[in-house]
């Protein structure tokens, strides 16, 4: 529901049409009905997740953290539920060569106080060697617990890039849920906010009106150069790294070995 500006030359290309407040409110109310339906559909999916079966596994499986090898059970920190993010790792790569997508997710999960308040613990797992992981965690300034699961079988180890949930019953441990890809997006509040803006995420796959700014490749904002420009070249870093003390332009992404 829109109106045409009285002066056609006032219409700006690649921008929403200009209307009065009443017309905007009518269009907003119409969209709100769809948003509420979307919310209810999400609630129904969450209800279905709660009804998934679960898989028991050996909670004594060892992971390696700042205090050396510890049983996976310790990650619960005495709580009954645990959410982990499985961070991909490039062996031997310097900080700027680590996974920019996983950096995006981990950066948005730096504080778990609201999880803890609901009886849920949080940790980051990765296949990197602990010595490399510890250096990276210190550089990034992460305060959440990280562990190397290099030698652990699934579901403690296994494929990375997943958000996974676990349940504890005494000393028994169960896998309850796991997701990856765009399933990780709920963690990234930045994406949710971008979806509320006229230009969205600025990615080419998005459905946008004719004349809108041309979109870029998916995830184009995950790396930048020293000037803050999105860049995937040899002088780029995952975006949050530029906030870390001592971060400087680099000459290589430095990736070595295989992506675990």
Quick rundown:
The chain has 260 residues and is α+β, with helices and mostly antiparallel strands. The protein has 5 helices and 10 strands; from the N terminus they run H-E-E-E-E-H-H-E-H-E-E-E-H-E-E.
Descriptive overview:
The chain has 5 helices and 10 strands. It has helices at 21-50, 100-107, 113-116, 130-140, 189-194, and strands spanning 55-57, 62-65, 68-71, 81-87, 120-126, 146-148, 162-169, 172-180, 223-224, 237-238. Helix 4 links the parallel strand 5 and strand 6. Residues 1-5 and 256-260 have low confidence and may be disordered.
What characteristics describe this protein?
flat, two-stranded antiparallel sheet, disordered C terminus, disordered N terminus, 5 helices, 6-stranded mixed beta sheet, 260 residues, 23% helix, 10 strands, alpha+beta
């Amino acid at each position: 529901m829109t109106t045409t500006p009285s002066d056609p030359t006032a219409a700006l290309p690649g921008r929403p049409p200009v209307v009065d407040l009443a017309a905007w409110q009518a269009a907003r109310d119409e969209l709100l009905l769809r948003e509420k339906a979307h919310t209810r559909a999400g609630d129904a999916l969450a209800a279905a997740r709660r009804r998934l079966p679960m898989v028991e596994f050996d909670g004594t499986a060892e992971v390696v953290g700042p205090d050396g090898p510890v049983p996976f059970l310790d990650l619960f920190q005495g709580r009954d539920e645990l959410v982990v993010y499985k961070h991909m790792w490039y062996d031997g790569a310097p900080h700027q060569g680590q996974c920019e997508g996983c950096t995006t997710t981990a950066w948005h999960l730096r504080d778990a106080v609201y999880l803890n308040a609901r009886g849920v613990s949080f940790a980051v797992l990765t296949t990197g060697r602990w010595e490399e992981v510890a250096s990276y965690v210190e550089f990034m300034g992460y305060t959440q617990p990280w562990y190397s699961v290099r030698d652990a079988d699934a579901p403690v180890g296994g494929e990375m890039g997943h958000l996974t949930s676990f349940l504890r019953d005494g000393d028994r441990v169960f896998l309850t849920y796991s997701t990856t890809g765009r399933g990780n997006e709920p963690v990234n509040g930045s994406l949710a906010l971008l979806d509320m803006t006229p230009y969205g995420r600025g990615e080419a796959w998005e459905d946008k009106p004719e004349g809108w700014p041309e979109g870029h490749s998916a995830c184009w904002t995950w790396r930048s150069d020293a000037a803050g420009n999105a860049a995937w070249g040899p002088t780029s870093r995952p975006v949050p790294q530029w906030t870390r003390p001592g971060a400087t332009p680099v000459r290589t992404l430095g990736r070595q070995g295989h992506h675990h």
